[in-house]
Amino acid sequence: MNSTLPPTRDLPPGRQAEIRAEVERAVSARSSFRFAPLVTAVTAVGAVVAVVAFLQPWQRPEAVGPARQETTTVLPTTTSAAPTKPVIAGLTPERIAEIEQGCVRIGPGSGKGTLYQYGEDEAGKWALVYTENAALSCTIDGPSMPYNAGFSSGFDPAWLPGPFAVDTNGGSAGGDVPGNKAIYRGQHGTATAAGRVTPEVARVTFTYDGQTAEATIANGTFVARNIFPTDWSIPQVEGFEVRAYDKAGNLLGSSTELAQKCYVTPDGKVVFGSWNNPDPATCDKAVRWK
């Protein structure tokens, strides 16, 4: 008999924080989902890397709170820079700092968060926060906790594959779906897509389950939220689509195009579309976001 213990194995970068976030979110019975990607590198299960192609929704079997989760998508070509310091109207510096810290704490658990968007709608309060290597789609002042975040990590937000990238997406069933806890009664179902854009992008749409939402574009980012009835259940549908347009109404690209392309930095590093180990010489050039 071999009594030698197996070697110690480190978790992938960021995975420990993801496990912690999953456990903290598992205090509720409200079901949530994210879209299954083709992963390029680094993180596993809990949060997906920033370079993926959307295929179909992943119905999460575990019970989780109203978090949305995560994936990434991108498209065509152009250069530009996002604002170095986001402008968030209607919030004090103290409140901005609270949101940044709260979302990062419940999400990846470490890193300096920067709030790029904040909003309120009939489904509640939401925020989009970025760290140096993660994107967080965060709900605020929810029924069960002050902050709850789905997040994608393990990518460099400095690079885009073209006019836009979908960095995080997912959703939650309505609070009146049978089996949910009483604390979620009356809560709307949601599906959210969020990411980064270049200045040429004037409009972004997000279609899921037969419904299309117009995105809010601010500070070099977009957030699109489809809001569903309180009894909306997560459907078995074939994925979703995000589209970006310029100010003249011309289509700049859609999320479904990502699977056919890869993108590289000037030094030849594949930063989008690396799941099939492409030859960097066949890839398009990635562009700077900031």
Summing up helix and strand content along with how strands pair, one would put the structural category as mainly beta
Q: Summarize the amount of helix as a percent range.
A: under 10%
Strand content is 25-35%
Q: Measure the end-to-end span.
A: 58 Å
Average pLDDT number: 77
Secondary structure tally: strands: 20
Described by strand count, sense and barrel closure, the largest sheet is:
7 strands, antiparallel
Unreliably modeled segments:
2-29, 36-83
Q: How many distinct folded domains?
A: 1
Shape: globular
What is the string of SSEs from the N terminus onward?
A: HEEEHEEEEEEEEEEEEEEEEE
Radius of gyration: 18 Å
Number of helices, counting only DSSP H or I runs of 4 residues or more: 2
Describe the protein.
The chain has one domain. Helices cover 9% and strands 33% of the residues. The N terminus is likely disordered. The protein contains 2 helices and 20 strands. Strands 1, 2, 3, 9, 10, 13 and 14 form a 7-stranded antiparallel β-sheet that branches. The protein has a 4-stranded antiparallel β-sheet with strand order 4-5-6-7, with helices on one face. It has a 4-stranded antiparallel β-sheet with strand order 12-11-15-16, with no helix packed on it. The chain is globular.
